[in-house]
Specification:
Blueprint lengths: L8 E3 L4 H10 L5 E4 L5 H6 L7 E4 L9 E4 L3 E5 L4 H6 L1 H6 L1 H8 L4 H6 L2 H7 L6 H7 L3 E6 L2 E6 H4 E3 L2 E2 L6 E7 L6 E8 L9 E9 L6 E9 L6 E2 L1 H7 L6 H14 L10 H25 L1
Parallel strand pairs: 1-3, 2-3
Antiparallel strand pairs: 4-5, 5-10, 6-7, 6-10, 8-9, 11-12, 12-13, 13-14
Helix pairs in contact: 10-11, 11-12
Bound molecules: flavin-adenine dinucleotide (FAD).
Length: 295
Amino acid sequence: MKNIIFDFEYLAPKTLEEALTLLSQYDEEERKVIAGGQSLIVIMRQRLITPKYLIDIKGLSDLDYIEFDEKEGLKIGALTTHRAVEKSPVIQKEFSVLSEMEKNLSNVETRNWGTIGGDIAHADPCGDPAPVMIALNAKLKITGLNGERIVNAEDFTLDFYETALQPDELLTEIQVPTLPPNTGIKFTKFNQIIGDLALASVAMSITLDGNKKACSDVRIALGGVAPAPMRAKNAEEILKGKKISHALLAEAGQAASEEASPTADIQASEEYRRELVKVLVKRVGREALARAKKA
Ligand SMILES: Cc1cc2nc3c(=O)[nH]c(=O)nc-3n(C[C@H](O)[C@H](O)[C@H](O)COP(=O)(O)OP(=O)(O)OC[C@H]3O[C@@H](n4cnc5c(N)ncnc54)[C@H](O)[C@@H]3O)c2cc1C
């Protein structure tokens, strides 16, 4: 009997409106949305959830797109696969940090079917796209039958696997603003097995002033070291307005590791994860700085 999924009724809406209507028709406890199923099926097999109705949105091709415009920035439909993001020429050119992140996300099979929206909506604190989106200052479009609303990526995940989505809403689009001039961004995750989820991850965006000397803006996002991906704001303050040196990055790393609130699990202790943050902030910061100087 182990690993056998309970029976469910399969519903395949053809339009977004149909999907939202189905969501509003069934009790929240009884139904679940499925996109690529790369995370959902795992927890269904473990019987952590046993939905009676599965609403499959993977066929909503209107939510599968990548668009870029200098002024508007990048728009990614929630149902775009990880692989499409990884391979997109415009993303490789304008937001290479996203394709780099995708290249190290799981294996190619998962990337071929799993969606970027599903990853963010799943809200695993160790997921890769969320911290990168926070560093990129992205916004998320959420759609319900009553209309759309926009939420900052950093405000989307509330707790372990909990998001700002209301029960009858879907995540429909990820919006990434065009990078300011003199900006460098880097993401690194630390894991024990290649392609696995992060034990800790850091995404950092550094913007330098016109002379490329002082740091005019910085965003540091941490993954895997708190119930939700978070900004390390004390660490950011250490770098803002200053000429970034290795010593200053070490100070920021120390501050970030103190701001994090990691939990211990079978893979790593709390102290180990704090140490990872300390090291990764320094490492990622050096690379983001080098990229900002070249930008
Ligand atoms: C072997 C393996 C390794 C993995 N490694 C990584 C890794 O290294 N990094 C990483 O980040 N992830 C990793 N994952 C997780 C997985 O890749 C992502 O979570 C996955 O891409 C989720 O997308 P999906 O379309 O498959 O979502 P699904 O599994 O279909 O759904 C996930 C959850 O999101 C909800 N959902 C989906 N789409 C929407 C939407 N548009 N609006 C609202 N709710 C929605 C579903 O109801 C469900 O609760 C791994 C998974 C596997 C199986």
